């Protein structure tokens, strides 16, 4: 599967993306998803543009962006690893895998929000709170592909392959 190539942020292109979705009912989320699909993240500069287009306050738009963990504030790496941190996965070792992945990649362990990208831009590590693979945890998602029954060896293999591409 080819990796996504994101366009560099420009307010003109951002305005086009916003305008293309502003007519939709409940347009805030579709606009945010479209911006992230286009640019790889939701630029802070887009928030007042969205607010103006939808007749919302900037605080309302910012509240939506900051509430949902799926929206990034900085461009992601070439690969995105989402590690499940929900209770079912925690009970079978997800926390240890999270620490191992962060140490292996040289990124800070994640707090309750956000993600970290390796210095070379190869991998962004994010946490999620349920991938729906509770019966086969610990689970993760790498570049949109779900992975169950994850262990250190399998995680190392996935990360080594991702960094090589």
Brief sketch in words of this structure:
This protein is an alpha+beta fold and 165 residues long.
Explained architecture:
- The chain is of the alpha+beta class.
- It has two domains: 57 residues, no CATH class; 86 residues, Glutaredoxin.
- The protein contains seven helices and five strands; from the N terminus they run ααααβααββββα.
- Helix 3 packs across helix 4 and helix 6 runs parallel beside helix 7.
- The mean pLDDT is 91.
Task: Write a concise keyword list for the protein shown above.
alpha+beta; Glutaredoxin; 2 domains; 7 helices; 43% helix; elongated; 2 iron, 2 sulfur cluster binding; metal-binding
Describe how the helices and strands are arranged:
Layout: H1 11-21, H2 28-39, H3 46-54, H4 58-67, E1 79-84, H5 87-90, H6 94-105, E2 115-117, E3 123-128, E4 140-142, E5 145-147, H7 152-164
Parallel strand pairs: 1-3
Antiparallel strand pairs: 1-4, 2-3, 4-5
Helix pairs in contact: 1-2, 1-3, 3-4, 6-7
As a percent range, the share of strand residues is 5-15%
Radius of gyration: 17 Å
Secondary-structure element sequence? Answer: HHHHEHHEEEEH
What's the assembly state of these chains?
Answer: single chain
Contiguous helical run count? 7
N→C terminal distance: 12 Å
Judged by helices, strands and strand pairing, the structural class is: alpha+beta
Record field, number of beta strands: 5
Number of spatially distinct domains: 2
The helix content, as a percent range, equals 40-55%
CATH topological fold name of the largest domain: Glutaredoxin
The residue-averaged pLDDT reads: 91
Low-confidence stretches: none
Shape designation:
elongated
Quick one: biggest sheet?
5 strands, mixed
Name given to the CATH architecture of the largest domain? 3-Layer(aba) Sandwich
Largest sheet, spatial ordering of strands: 2-3-1-4-5
The first-level CATH class of the largest domain is given as Alpha Beta
CATH superfamily of the largest domain: Glutaredoxin
């Amino acid at each position: 599967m080819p990796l996504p190539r994101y366009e560099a942020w420009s307010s003109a292109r951002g305005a086009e993306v916003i305008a293309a979705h502003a007519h939709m009912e409940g347009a805030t989320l579709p606009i945010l998803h479209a911006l992230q699909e286009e640019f790889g993240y939701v630029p802070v500069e887009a928030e007042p543009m969205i607010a103006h287009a939808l007749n919302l306050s900037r605080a309302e738009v910012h509240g939506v962006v900051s509430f949902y963990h799926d929206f990034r504030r900085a461009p992601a790496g070439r690969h995105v690893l989402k590690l499940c941190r929900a209770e079912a996965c925690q009970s079978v070792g997800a926390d240890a895998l999270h620490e191992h992945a962060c140490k292996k990649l040289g990124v800070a362990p994640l707090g309750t929000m956000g993600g970290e990208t390796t210095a070379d831009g190869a991998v962004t590590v994010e946490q999620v709170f349920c991938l729906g693979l509770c019966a086969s945890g610990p689970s993760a998602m790498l570049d949109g592909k779900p992975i169950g029954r994850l262990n250190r060896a399998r995680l190392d293999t996935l990360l080594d392959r991702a960094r090589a591409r």
